[in-house]
Amino acid sequence: MSSHPAMHYEKLGGGRCKCGLCPHECLISEGGHGRCRVRANNGGEIFLMNYAQISGAALDPIEKKPLKRFHPGSFVLSIGSYGCNLSCPFCQNHSISMKKPQTQECSPDEMAKLAKAYVKDGSIGLAYTYNEPLIGYEYVLDCARKVRDEGLLNVLVTNGCIKEEPFRNIIRLFDAANIDLKGSEGFYKKIGGDARAVKANIAEAAQICHVEVTELIIPGENDSDEEMEETASFLAGIGKSIPLHITRFFPNYLYSNRKATPRETVLRLKAIAEKRLEFVYAGNMA
User: Fold this and answer.
1) Angle formed by the axes of helices 263-273 and 225-238, to 10°?
2) What torsion, rounded to 10 degrees, do the Cα atoms 79, 82, 83, 88 define?
3) Count of alpha carbons within 13 angstroms of residue 170, beta-carbon side
4) All domains in the chain, ordered by first residue
5) Which residue from 202, 262, 278, 214 is spatially nearest to 238, judged by alpha carbons?
6) Statement: the pTM of the whole predicted model exceeds 0.90
7) Interstrand relation of 244-248 and 210-217 (parallel, antiparallel or unpaired)
8) What is the average per-residue pLDDT within 10-35?
9) How far is residue 82's CA from residue 52's CA, in Å, rounded to a whole number?
10) Residue 1: pLDDT above 60?
11) Partners of 28 in the beta sheet?
């Protein structure tokens, strides 16, 4: 079941296709794949290669997503697959975002039943997380429909780097989302992302479901007062009650030789954001 027909692409002729799911708009030749490594060209058609392939699952506190103001004290069954459409050198989940790990197959029907089974343990539904879930768009879409049919809640944890039309179509199935806003447009260029697309999707999601935003602070990269003022101003323009999580970086992946973000930096940026936003949280402060 790992290969599944994909949506949101255009045939260009000569066996080539242009993926239309995210801003990269990858041109994919026969036998190739997009930047995400999971959307591949087979016979002049695009297929999703990680459909129903689960690399990890856990019953997590909702606060771990992080969602501080959505059903606090509850749990949510959290699942991940593999692949990502960004190239963050600081990725905490690089073992599944940058590589193909061992997986287990779980169809949307099976996943919805599994989510239902965990209600007795305090779960409110299903969270799509760990790697970038939206590159597995078709599986997330199918699961979200099944989960909603079961009367459960859908939670999305995403980098938000997806084109507006597919995002608009899928976010309507979600009850809550935590979306990364990693920094300025210049910072996004370093990791292969599109700040404008992410901001547009945050604004769209805020009209439809509960939204919280996370910014991981990396020393010397996105830790200036000016960048935080820009982030807080943008979010306040959508709604001052949007929670912002300002999160401390720890050395990881290609940035394993970097120093952790000083606690003082996080607290300084938190104070800046609090001038515009009602709910600002400092994360990873232990």
Assistant:
1) 40
2) 70
3) 29
4) 4-48 (no CATH), 53-283 (3.20.20.70)
5) 202
6) yes
7) parallel
8) 97
9) 11
10) no
11) 17
